[in-house]
Fold each of these.
Amino acid sequence: MSGNLNVEQLVDAARQRTGLDDFGPDTWQEGLGVLVKSLNEESALNARGEELMAGRIVDLLAERLKFEQSWKDNPSIADEQIVRPVIGIGLGRSGSNALGFVMAQDPNRRVLRSWEAHVPSPPPEEATQYDNPRIEMQAARHKAERAEFPESGDKVPTDPRGPTECVFVLAYDFRSQLFEAWGRNPTYSEWLFSCDMTPAYDFHKRVLQMLQWHCGPKDWFIRSPPHMHGVFELGKTYPDARFIQTHRNVDDMIPSEAALFSSLLTQLTDEPDEPYIGRHLADVRVICLQRLMAFRDQHPDKFFDIGFYEMAEDIMGRIRALYDWLGDELTDEAAQRMEAWWAANSAGRHGGRSYDAARFGVDKDELKQRFAFYHDRFPELTRKR
């Protein structure tokens, strides 16, 4: 069945909503075209799924229009420097989200906050950053998403004021693994994993410049597991970046990630095809890890490693070691806030559940073989406790 999403109508809707027509560099059209074709022809969206996807695409286009207008209105934003960012990278469901929330407790560190990622313009101001009306907008969005996708909220901690993934920012150029969670989109996936991610990271950098312009600090921690597949372009965009790689045994991770995707897709389609989800995730995670390992081989001194299991055992021990490696001061205030957040959001509440691999079309013995190149390289970090 062919869907009803139409690129021209979506673009026109964004223009009408904002009264703007300048989308900036012409790099977003190709990805949007492939995505819409894939959603129409392959995703088997139900009526509600089609409505939601249309709304989200228009949201992305409208925010891109608003961003470009703010950029033109404030040319000095382009003078902002992003210096030595710390970037969280690695497998999904490996503790990266929890690590992001822990790092966000340090008042001297800047993170990409959920409300900023979804509505980055106008540029935030330091004086109003804690009572910005966009925070309430994002809180309402979270509430609506919890109602629409009730199971997903148990798997990932969320907070409109808290940190979120860069995957949402990359989506403004329609080169993002965010859309992997929108349906069974093999054509888009094939395009995404072969495209040049440079335009998406160029836009990503501009977003960080805008966010820090009048709202510090400027010592960034950003994160997203999907950075793995574009890590070479990411490294060129931020040549002085330091990386924190989180690790987990893949035969735990793939079923856990597939369960998260399934909880989203069951609301968008009447044919969620759970075996496809698991097999597809295994395929793309092989690609992602292979690219990341190749990048690490070229830049071995840029990486600090944290394992999912050791994080659960001694989070503050690993954080202190990380700060020593970074050469940054871990203040008493930051450490106390980190410990308090961890105590209230233990790993057992987010990510500790076991999932049936066979339900998602994968075999754990086969996963061990396919990902041996990764497990053998990091045996202690991926060893189950």
Note: The radius of gyration is 20 Å.
Amino acid sequence: MKSKGIVYLVGAGPGDAGLLTLRGAELLGRADVVVYDALVNPELLRLAPPTAEIIYGGKRAKDHAIPQADLNQLLVEKARAGKTVVRLKGGDPYIFGRGGEEAEEIAAAKVPFEVVPGISSTFAAPNYAGIPITHRDHCSSYMVITGHEDPTKEESNLDWAQIAKTQGTKIVLMGVERIGQIADSLVANGMSARTPVAMVRWGTTGQQQTIEGTLATIADVVTKNKFAAPAVTIIGDVVKLRKKLNWFENRPLFGRRIVVTRTRDQASQLSRQLLDRGAEVLEIPTIRIAPTTHRELLADAMLELNSYDWMIFTSPNGVTAFFEHFFRAFEDMRDIGGVRIAAIGPATAAKLKELHLKVDLMPEEYVAGKIADAFKKYETIENLKLLLLRAEVANPELPAALEKMGAIVDDIPCYRTVPETEDLNGAAAKLAEEGCDWITFTSSS
């Protein structure tokens, strides 16, 4: 019997990948199909299973990748085929995102669906710009307005006279192109021309840009700075608080674009540290880890584990690769026997610790050549049998140095590095178009 499909309308948040909800991350992790919008952080797509079908359904200005009617039908068809469909929408699905329309179509087709709220740029962008949209000393209310509509047209859905008279902060979404008309309409309907205005572009991301002015000057500020969408506009006295509360743009690496070239599995820790310091991070792995082509050698070594005195791991990749093979052959960690373990670097030691394995020897300098020096201080290895586990292409100096000390060394490749050719998150294309400030390399691979 065919399983019943479902559509999840998931809010992807305002841009910072860390602002996706736990529920959203969980659903992405078990999606069969992901249909995502233009303003969704592409890093979130990596949360989907490798087998998931990824479909771009974004809309920017007059450029629609898939017409809305066709997109609605696509969601229904995929769900009817028994798929778990995640419709990933920027911000919150029901705030100026046409999520309500999509939900109506899905409901009319009698397809099960669920809505997962997302953090909206409505308040997230001001937060990251140091602007609280309400404040006890300034205002106790706010309104959200679409700036997509021409405020000068005769039959507007928005009552600009009433908007101007209403107290509180005014948040305008999608209003960059019409900001001059919007400001003029508010002033014409009674707001002070000196009312503070801030506009936040690409809010919550490393590309965030904030400009300030007043209702009288903001259009000129936009032109002068060549300011463009997507942006959130904040109108009201709370903008003055930005001078005291601007935390995000004051971080040490804010405004810097940094490329991380580590493998996808290893990039996250470095990327997180850079993001926490305000950088915009492009993860562009130059290599990926693949299974060794010498599986027979590795299998033979595993059968003889009890004959070795030492196992030597030179990287976390070696630990991961070796034990993936190990647990295919053995069910009990105790089958590793009484062999002692040497590791190069704290990251390698940490990976072993995850497996509840203690490292007996680690050189003070975290380079492969220093392991021989560490053995000299620790004990003689003459006639001891050492299992060296590392990549297929590796420096021959280490086994040579150990053999020179009298050890019997089996240099067994347990993984290989291959060039990464996929650009899953579009980072490589962005680098080619826009450049960067720094590129990081963490190994000779």
Note: The radius of gyration is 28 Å.
Amino acid sequence: MDQRALREFVVDAHRNGYAAGNGDPTGDGGTVVEYVTGNWRYVDRYYGSTAFLGSEIVFFDETPVWGMHYAGEPTGYDGDDEHIYKFLREALEQAPVEMPYRGPRRYAADSFVYRTVSDGTITRFSGTERIDCEGVPVYRGRFGGGRIE
């Protein structure tokens, strides 16, 4: 598996998936986002709108080759949670090809700051993410995944 091509596809899928506001109801209370280009297919399935849990699977030639699980929730924000998730989508659009799991190490806009820390490589990784508003933590998340053989 060409790791660079995989990383580039994951970034592209993220930018065209949840970060872009795309998704369809699953019928069992979840949301599914699918993105296809060439031989690559990405499927993101998640549940919940405030506290959420989800997984992403990348297929190459219809064979699952990579996956990630993730979960997150607000941590006492006094405002509308949609402000947090709008900012989270903005941060996820900024993910670098070198570290395509969630967002960049740091992204700031208005009064929000997104940060992520991860260990590993595209083949096996784990990490955390958080959003602060005016220095106060308002969201936290966890993620992990890697290759599927």
Note: The chain has two helices and nine strands.
Amino acid sequence: MTNILTFCTASAQELPRAALEILAAGRQLGDKLGNGKVQAALIGPDVEEHGETLVHHGADEVFVASHPRLQDHEADVILGTLQTVVQQLGPDVVLFPHDALSGGNVGPRLAYRLGTGIVTDCVGFEIKGDTIRWLRPVYGGKAMAYMVASGP
């Protein structure tokens, strides 16, 4: 079974559209793999109520990290929290939404801390044998290329 962890930040008032989009991508990947379990790491202050929404939109499991220090979406606090979640759950794939906090800051730093590969700015994927190939724009968006992330 392939475990897919999606990273979702939220506030008590709002579950951003990006959280649902990354969860949908995780569900699509899990379904294409045929045995994928989709987990959501929901991080933010007072976000527990959004757990049911994530399950309704395709998460098999939701793990909530809620604390007042997460109010300001500080990258270092979120990075430490997510690193703990990833180390405890041991997912095969971690998906981040494309925003300044997640994909542009936390994702690359988490990959470095874990000593694993990362492919950013993905717009799709395909499965070739046992390998997930990630589709992303290259050459300033003039072409598309498949990339493979490697790591331990």
Note: Residues 17-33 form the longest helix (17 residues).
